[in-house]
Amino acid sequence: TLDVLGRVKQSKETANTIVFNDTATTEIYTSKELRNAVQMAVDNNIALQLGINGDGIPAENHHVAPFHPEYAEIPKKAPDPAAAIEMAKAAGHGETELELISIDGDWRTVTTDAIGAMLREAGFNIKRTVIPGSSFWNDWTKYPFSTTNWGPRPLGVQVLALAYKSGEAWNESAHSNPEFDSTLEEALGVFDADERRELSAKLQTMLQDDGAIVQPYWRNQTKHHTDEVKNNFVHQFREMHFEETWLDS
Predict the structure, then answer these.
(1) pTM for this structure?
(2) For residues 39-76, b (16+ Cβ closer than 10 Å) or e, as one string?
(3) C-beta of residue 43 within 8 angstroms of C-beta of residue 87
(4) pLDDT per residue over 162-190, tens digit each?
(5) Is the separation of the CB atoms in 22 and 144 below 8 Å?
(6) CA end-to-end span of the chain, whole Å?
(7) Angle 32-41/193-210 helices, nearest 10 degrees?
């Protein structure tokens, strides 16, 4: 609507995202094969298009963004729904009901619906549950299979330390890997981003291979303003800086 009204549109790629967690300590999801199968069944680009109308870029299921200074390019894994359901069947979960939980409302619900539809189309037995926002966050780290939105952090290792280190309070996927933890501890002590990138490549690969999450996309930060507003830009963390902004009327 704002585009049609002739407003100036500005957009910036960010590390704002949504992740699908299959909690590794829950009986069903102790199966690494099932976690990998769920991951393989989802086309992240389709989730991006359906979830937020393509206003972002596809993610790679490891929660380190291309905008993080230590981001490492690792081999991308293509979706394969047919192989995914066969993997689930081989693991004994071809008919297992997977309850996919999300908060009610906005892009998070729509994205979860899109993921659920892809899993269902691949042959998985999916049950969708939507929980009102007034109660969703009471147990957000305890749902067996759910989606959660994550705000950006300046460094990739900050996100990994919060969300995927063993025993951390916000580790909703219950990811636990001693090698991952020790590599992360080492990475947290490396100041130079280029040097830290070598460790990040290992961390990204381990998290992706473990099937801890399905992470479909990184959201853009987009805003509109009138053309009288000059020298004002979108900020990665939605901060508003007007020190050098003026109104040309």
Answers:
(1) 0.88
(2) bbbbbbebbbbbbbeeebbbbbbbbbbebbebbbebee
(3) no
(4) 999 999 999 999 999 999 999 999 999 99
(5) yes
(6) 23
(7) 100
